[in-house]
Amino acid sequence: MIDLHTHTTNSDGTDSPHALINKALSAGIKVLGVTDHDTTSGWEDAIRARRADLHLALGAEISCLTDDGVAVHMLGLLFDGQNSQMQIMLEESRDSRLPRMRKMTELLTADGIDISLDEVFAAMPEGATLGRPHLADALVAKGHVASRDEAFADLLHNGSKYYVTHLAPTPEDAIRTIRSAGGVAVIAHPFATRRGQTLSAMSFPSLIEAGLNGVEVDHRDHSQDERQQLRGIAGDLGLVITGASDYHGTGKLNSIGENQTDPAEWERLESMADARRVVTE
Questions:
Q1: What pLDDT, on a 0 to 100 scale, did the predictor assign at position 194?
Q2: Dihedral angle at the C-alpha atoms of 51, 54, 57, 61, nearest 10 degrees?
Q3: What's the CATH fold of domain 97-156?
Q4: What is the mean pLDDT of each run of 10 residues along the chain (281 residues)?
Q5: pLDDT (0 to 100) of residue 197
Q6: Which residues belong to any copy of the Polymerase/histidinol phosphatase N-terminal domain (predicted)?
Q7: What is the C-alpha to C-alpha distance for residues 185 and 182, in angstroms, rounded to an integer?
Q8: Tell me, what's the pLDDT at 199?
């Protein structure tokens, strides 16, 4: 079993890297992608917790914005974690999250949904990358909503009047940076319409030109029609097809390993990195 997209408490998951590793082992995962939002800070703990029969594909999920304002998530896997350009891009994205969160709490409070930045910080694990799931958790704690899912469905989705974008690289810039750091780039859940505005098929040529390696097809937020369309695009463009859980622990319904990547597709994807960086020992 190969699951290339998961999160820990180093971003917006609810499991520590150690707990994530244990759950992956219990689920029978053989290759696990640890891909926290805009950070590599969980890599070291994940490596320490790893056991012999679990291989790690370390990476990050990079928050991007197209030139016309569509939010896109790009999975970077198997890149050199010491690459300065990569770390600068991740740091700049993290730094932009605070003013964004301040504005979102102000918009909510102005509409009578009282929530403060301090309450969001209180809901955020130490060392985590600030994000909307922490605002969702604060809203749950305050009694405004019953769950993270309800918070996103009603208040925090990309089309909500409370949604605020943050400074972010374009998907093409993120791909080029990932590739220059020796890694591979896979666009995450690109047709997930339940999340709000999405990419169109016409967006893929520029992503291919930038160096895109793969597309996450099998994902909880893709309908069967969306999966079928993406398989066709991937086949036409020679992209690797991946599947993943996008596991966040108790913060979302996603179960670890609920969608997986075919071993042959994983082998093809891994071969596209400039060095073998899968952690096996």
A1: 65
A2: -90
A3: DNA polymerase; domain 1 (1.10.150)
A4: 96 93 95 96 95 95 87 95 96 87 94 95 85 92 93 90 87 97 96 71 91 96 92 96 94 88 98 96 79
A5: 54
A6: 2-66
A7: 10
A8: 77
Q: Which amino acid is at 11?
A: S
Q: Which amino acid is at 232?
A: G
Q: What is the CATH number of domain 2-94+172-270?
A: 3.20.20.140
